[in-house]
Amino acid sequence: MIEKLLVIGAGFLGNTIFQLATKTGLTTSCTNKTHGSIHLDIREIHMIEKVINSVKPDLIINCAALTNIDEIEREPKTAYDVNSIGAGNIAKIAKKNKIKFVHISTDGVFDGSERLYLESDKTNPINEYAKSKKLGEDLVLETYDDSILVRTNFYGHNNENKFLFNWILNNLKQNQKFTAFSDVIFNPLEICNLSLMILDIMKTDFRGIVNIAGDEIISKYQFAYKIAKTLNFDTNLVESGSIKNSSLIANRPLNTSLSNKLAKSLITTEIIPLEKWLKEKFLNVS
Q1: 129 is catalytic
Q2: Catalytic residue among 129, 144, 155, 225
């Protein structure tokens, strides 16, 4: 039985999992400056061991990662230190202490030449960020077989006004036209919905790789358009464009949609569609 959870990572997902886990009654610790908690540099394996010996968790969820794709493309070393070696370090200490381990990866490990990727499909990352995450996957799975590796993509309303959803919403609020890619396809989950699913799957006996993704396969343009339409903004503000014409530095896969059949067989949490979440969150419509 899981009674004490350690969430590693001070970012958007780590914060959300920490808050929701705490509300469920779990004793939860987080390496998160926001909550005045524990400082941890996962590049230093002795620090991981010290924290785990202090907290004595029943389960560890690793959300720590560097994710700025273009910045990593220019300077990849630190990303490999954190996303790859750091993930492997946690797996080593989790194994040493026989603690169940959930590691968060990305849909970006695929090259985008296919669609609805299965957990067993061959990976082929095409930028340094995705390569660092794939190496992290390998190190976790090679090190510790009592691990769950989650591949996913998420969106949500960020309190620090960061990331894709906030960028779209800010442009709409400012009546500012913007371009969204019609040739980049994904099936993301709202971050609270994803977090509850992760908390759900950690209670199962499953081990290995699982895709936790939404039911709706959608382009970035369709995603932005649906936000505008549902929230009653001018949909003409959302202009369709191609990633091929962008100034982005790193290559991005064009279709990273993930099959969620396995997750659905393991998880009882309902998948919340984008439109339903928007209405409940912003329009108070249930």
Answers
A1: yes
A2: 129
